What does this fold into?
Amino acid sequence: MSFGSFEQGASHQPMSEINTTPLVDVMLVLLVIFIITAPLFHHAVPIDLPKVDAKPLDDRPRIIAVAIDALGRVLIDGSAVTSSELAQRLGQAAAAAEQPELHLRADRATRYERVTEILAEAQRQGLTRIVFVTQPPP
It folds into this structure.
């Protein structure tokens, strides 16, 4: 061991070397394991896949951009709408075969109550995919 005895004397000095034998043993075992398992990573089963001429699927959903300005006015895709027009357009979008994604942008000065009104209307019309659009800090 690397410890000295409890006896006092000049002949008994503590060992000042580190025993590296266990470290070398562990490294050799890891090397052997790596050498054995490395060829298994490149083993592949050859498969002859069918050739098909198909149109790629469009995975991106349709987006409805709703913006609320500081005065509480609502804009859908850039055009101002009233509350009844908002409900009608959101209902038409929800009735489509594919569920659209509602991107909601609200001005910093917009009252929270106005934002919740828009969210409640979207929920009433059946829209469930809602994204809050923000701007990252500078």
Q: What stands out?
A: The longest strand covers residues 63-68. Residues 11 and 99 are 86 Å apart (CA to CA). The mean pLDDT is 84.
